[in-house]
Amino acid sequence: MTWILVSFFSCIALAFAGTWFLTRNESFKSCLNYFLAGRKLTYPFIAGSLLLTDLDAEELVGLNGSAFSDGLCIMVWEVGAVVSILFAANFFLPRLLRASSTSIPDFLEQRFHPSTGMMVNIVFILAYIFSQIPIVLYSGAQMLRTMFGFDVILQRYGICGEYFQLLVLVAALAGIGAVYALWGGLKTCVVSDTLTGFGWLVGGFLVLYFGLNALGGEEGFINGVKVFFREGNELKKLNSLGSADSSVPFFTIFTGALVLSSFYWCSNQFILQRSLGSKSLAEGQKGTLLCGVLKLFSPFYLVFPGIIACIMVSRHALQISGADEVYGIFARAVVPRPLIGCLAAILFGGVISTFDSLLNSVCTLCSLNIYRRYRPSASDRSVIRVGFWCGIVLTLLSIFLSPLCFMAGRIFDYMISCLSVYGVAIFYVVVLGVFCRKASVRIANTGFVLTFLVMLFKLFYKDFPGGWLGHIHELHFTALVFAASVLLGFIFSHFFPAKQESAQTRTIFAVNCTGHGDRTQNTAPPDAGIDLTPWKYTGLASLILLAAVVAFYLLFADFSVF
Fold first, then answer.
1. Residue 342's closest CA among 173, 207, 140, 190?
2. Which of 76, 91, 147, 277 is 20 to 30 A (C-alpha) from 535?
């Protein structure tokens, strides 16, 4: 146990030292540097930070738990997400950067009206505080507690009971994450993410290797691969196409799963903030697409271990009682003890990276989008100070909210349910702002409120509104609400267009949605401080990635489920 603790704290100290060394000469006294890394991020840092901001204990624990139950079809949230990443790089990022936006609410305020930005801003803050952040911290604490024996360590110091142990671990995660997010802003978060991301990938693949090695018995890794495919197919866990009784039936790939994934990668503030801090549009597109390449490999460490655990349970080599325990028990059983501490530190860093990204985003929303609006003459120093204290308050609040998540049931399903409530409404108004030139503030605001209320009502009343519509799959319902909202938004915008087009709207639509000049418009870029020339290989790279996604699905497809 001593060696586990020594290796654990040594890896954390090494990551902290590396982050300090790479950011020691940076100045964080201006809002641009603190909240958007001075808009100097290049594509390797963008890709690394995007990937690790997305990867956290909730995904590691939740997706492997879902794979244990549903099999490979759960990879829709990873491989299928590449399609949404292509949308972000090709269609959303060019116009968001052209608007010189610091956040999604800032873009909507410029595109429509301050009331639109404020509504979305408040929804983002509430969603992050009461849903996203508690889930991230809780799943990370639960992983450390069950996977690495921290429950036993805490018992030695008289901390007994699940709630109090989770409280201590959540406090540790939140405290260290707050140091990164509040000490150096976005640049520190991004550098830390990139350093930890390399370790996360190595650790994830090591767990897969040790799992296959254990599955192969005395004959080792190669035999384990053979057993994995043979017995995985026998248990019907290696089909990329979900059956009707799975959590993600096949057709949800094209409906609710696509909608929620597109919101997450195209308009979710804490994800998109990395791309908004890019040095140029080309760097942002390259970083986003590189993240898409890395996402293609994520099933190997986010899905396959859950399937291996299912095979081991069928062989009576493991005992697992709940889906959220799958990865912890599996990793603890197959990883050699000398490496447990290093693996714990890597996963610990992954949780912190997601938390500090969320914290940095909330600080941005509170200080730039609320405080500076009501005090436009406020200095950068006072704005940063407000963001800092908002972060402190949020960190303390998160510590006490997170352990209550154990009442929510399977954590990944709970996260998807919460995401659908606010994600559909926000994505609707962003799509309207990016693609519908005639949309007015009244149509945007009314559609946003109605969409949010419908999804919130559905969350609490599962059979709403009764009949066949109340009993269709939740992901189909999500897509239906989104499609209806967008269609009605475009129809009403056609018949009741905005009475007067703002200068900002003319600037945004002076290029087509991919960022290339429109011959009918003035193509001179605004004074955004960055180069808005698109990367010339964006289209080709996107087609190659799309082909890779289709090939991945076809490779594991079994159409007999229909």
1. 207
2. 76
Q: How far apart are CA 46 and CA 43, in angstroms?
A: 5
- Predicted pLDDT at 10: 59
User: pLDDT class for 520, splitting at 50, 70, 90?
Assistant: very low
R_g of the chain, CA atoms, integer Å: 23
pLDDT of residue 523: 44
Segment 456-493, tens digit of pLDDT: 888 777 665 555 565 788 888 999 999 999 999 999 99
Q: Could you tell me the two tokens for 466?
A: 């009764």
Amino acid at 82: V
Cα separations in angstroms, 492 against 188, 432, 434, 442: 44, 11, 16, 10
End-to-end, the C-alpha distance of the chain in Å comes to: 50
At what angle are helices 43-54 and 269-276 packed, to 10 degrees?
170
Partners of residue 41 on adjacent β-strands: 278
Instruction: Kindly list the structural domains of the chain, giving each domain's residue range(s) and its CATH number in brackets, ordered by start.
Output: 43-561 (1.20.1730.10)
What are 191-244's pLDDT values in tens digits? 555 666 666 777 788 889 999 999 988 888 899 999 999 999 998 899 999 888
DSSP string, 28-39: --SHHHHHHGGG
CB contact at 8 A, 457 and 464: yes
Cα–Cα distance, 162 to 142 (Å, whole number):
9
Per residue in 93-133, pLDDT tens? 888 888 877 778 888 988 898 899 899 988 988 888 888 88
CA 89, CA 84: separation in Å to the nearest integer? 9
* Distance, CA of 178 to CA of 383 (rounded, Å): 18
Closest by CA to 557, choosing from 229, 242, 300, is 242
Contacts of 22 (CB under 8 A, 6+ apart): 191, 195
